[in-house]
Amino acid sequence: MILAKVTGHVVATQKCDALRGSNLLLITALDDDQQTMPDRTWVAVDSVGAGMGDVVLAENYFALNKEQYKAMSVVAIVEKVFRDVRE
């Protein structure tokens, strides 16, 4: 799983049957300081109703039939991240 921020929406006029009715989001991974990492951006299937600017938890291969499709899926909207500052 990765922690990411929703940075955009993807509009597809034609989708495979498994994606019909699904929203597609552009998500960008967050680093340890919760800053976006522009070189780590993906399209993910939204299964929780996330919106622009939301911090989300995303997982590979969760939303669709693993044998037929490979997709990243947004599985949670994150309210707060607690981190132990001791190093």
Automatic annotation (TrEMBL):
<keyword id="KW-1283">Bacterial microcompartment</keyword>
<protein>
    <submittedName>
        <fullName>Carboxysome shell and ethanolamine utilization microcompartment protein CcmK/EutM</fullName>
    </submittedName>
</protein>
<dbReference type="InterPro" id="IPR036677">
    <property type="entry name" value="EutN_CcmL_sf"/>
</dbReference>
<dbReference type="GO" id="GO:0031469">
    <property type="term" value="C:bacterial microcompartment"/>
</dbReference>
<dbReference type="Pfam" id="PF03319">
    <property type="entry name" value="EutN_CcmL"/>
</dbReference>
<dbReference type="InterPro" id="IPR004992">
    <property type="entry name" value="EutN_CcmL"/>
</dbReference>
<comment type="similarity">
    <text>Belongs to the CcmL/EutN family.</text>
</comment>
